[in-house]
Amino acid sequence: MATLGLTVANDIASAALIFYVRGRTLSQTTQDKPLLKWLKDNQKTFPSGNNQISEPIQGAYMADTPGFLQGYTQDDAINFAQASNILRAVFTWKEVVASLIITWTELKQDGITIMDDSKGGRTSEHSDVALTRITGLLENRLDDYGESYSRANNLMLWQDGTQDAKQVPGVLSLITDVNTGSTGGLSRVTYPWWQNRINLALAPSQQNSTVIQFFNSEIIQLKRYGGKPNKALCGSAFLDGLRSELIAKGYFTQTGFQNERATELGVGGLHISGLGKFEYDPTLDQLGKSKRCYVLDSRRLKLRPMEMEDNKILTPERPYQYMVFLKSMTWTGALEVTQLNACGVYSLI
Fold this sequence. Notes:
Elements: E1 2-5, H1 6-20, H2 34-41, E2 52-58, E3 86-92, E4 94-103, H3 104-109, E5 112-115, H4 127-158, H5 171-174, E6 182-183, E7 186-187, E8 197-202, H6 210-222, E9 231-234, H7 236-248, E10 270-272, E11 276-280, H8 282-286, E12 292-296, E13 301-305, E14 312-314, E15 324-337, E16 344-348
Parallel strand pairs: 1-5, 8-16, 9-11
Antiparallel strand pairs: 2-3, 4-15, 6-7, 9-12, 10-11, 12-16, 13-15, 14-15
Helix pairs in contact: 1-4
């Protein structure tokens, strides 16, 4: 039986966690998670401090005040406007943790003995064998852990936060079905410009291309106030409806039969000018929103991890009464939005 020092074992497990979990694509996925990858690719850290992230925003201007621009002659009295239109959207950061436990019994069954002493124990001539053995054991566990960690984070960043008040409220809490209530502490009713775009009654028409025509007009509204939407995440039913309109208008590609190439009987990626590709996100199906499409702007919707707290690996001390090997990973941050009218939610009926 190989002998492995506790310190060496911890180093190996930490290195493996970095490989499986902290990599760019977040583990060995069994299902695409385009929202998670997109948010991670565009995230921006913030320094530690109080428990909130505050962003300055402005929707009203002095020009909205009647009489701001006035005609005058001779000694007419002039009105003076005072600029006080800066507001702050505030988002509370949250802390989440996922942990892994392996019993010493399991390690023994894999041929590993850990020497639990303050100096890290012995490795001796068995270190190479031990490295191979423990990597084989951890590979299975960390594969599971990495996929589970990315699944849980992806689901959290989609959901509205009602599943757990201590978790980060996700996209559904920011891009909502109705423009009521508050987001970031600001009322959507009081500030009409603080509202996302909504249309939950789109009816695909193979004859009239209703959905295609709608988005050709909607993209103008999403960009009206400087928005630059660059992500459209959709459920399977939404994509089917959009695809049916394309097929009805003859959007097939045909290369003929020369050189033994087959005729393509389908539609490739679905794109719209000014926005890009309509991308399938399986999580929307999982959440019962297969008919939905969410159009987002990466400049205005951002994942904000705290500095030094983005997937932080921890090695808790083993409780003296339990013969176990422990690992944890924490994440601290928030999902924020700084311009709602550059994003929208759409649904087929």
